[in-house]
């Protein structure tokens, strides 16, 4: 091969190598930007959600599919304190004292997992709020792992009252029914501010399986759960001081 042809081939090879390196650098830069954006977006949204009523990812999915959604935002002081007490008692009795994560319960569930048994969750209200705001509904260890830093972030940025207010306004209480106001209207024909103790207990104990449990006409098992919730609320003591006036 003539020397000129060899030199031209070498130049073309170098140019291709440079082009590949440039392409890789561009891809790397874009990946880094996307990762930074993905990490920053929940923080930015959480700051926004401190003043703006958010919607959940499940609500967004239903909107995208053209499905019916009923959500009527209400401030916490327009939601019955009976529901506040019942939900905290049922879902996260350490809500006022934890930092978004119930570490003792989490360690207990990890120990259960290590023994080969099925863990039962240890999910706090803040973790559930993080899931509803930013993540998907299917259960997986990946999703659970993402819930932890998101819950810590929510607890660091938002007040306890705001976390609970958001939770009670985006929690699912039936097919297309989101939030305490929509749930109270759908199941009991009244505003959330007027829920009785029994109605609140039925709504709170419907949360683990909201599409299968009917708060207005509960099954025998659901009624027992609600009765237990009422007893626990009565014996709870000062569990609600971060969100309700004392006394």
Report what the structure shows:
- This protein is an all-alpha fold and 247 residues long.
- It has two domains: 1-49; 56-234, Penicillin binding protein transpeptidase fold (Orthogonal Bundle).
- The chain has helices spanning 3-49, 57-64, 81-91, 103-114, 125-134, 141-157, 160-170, 180-188, 197-206, 220-234, and strands at 70-71, 177-178.
- It has a two-stranded parallel ribbon with strand order 1-2.
- α3 crosses α10 (220-234) and α9 crosses α10 (220-234).
- The longest helix has 47 residues, at 3-49.
Low-confidence stretches: none
Overall mean pLDDT score?
89
Beta percentage is under 5%
Order of helices and strands: HHEHHHHHEHHH
CATH superfamily of the largest domain: Biosynthetic peptidoglycan transglycosylase-like
The level-1 CATH class of the largest domain: Mainly Alpha
- Sheet with the most strands: spatial strand order: 1-2
Helix tally? 10
Whole-number radius of gyration?
Answer: 25 Å
**The CATH topology of the largest domain is what?**
Penicillin binding protein transpeptidase fold
What form results from the Cα inertia axes? elongated
What proportion of the residues is helical, as a percent range? 55-70%
Number of domains: 2
Largest sheet: 2 strands, parallel
Q: How far is it from the N-terminal to the C-terminal residue, by CA?
A: 96 Å
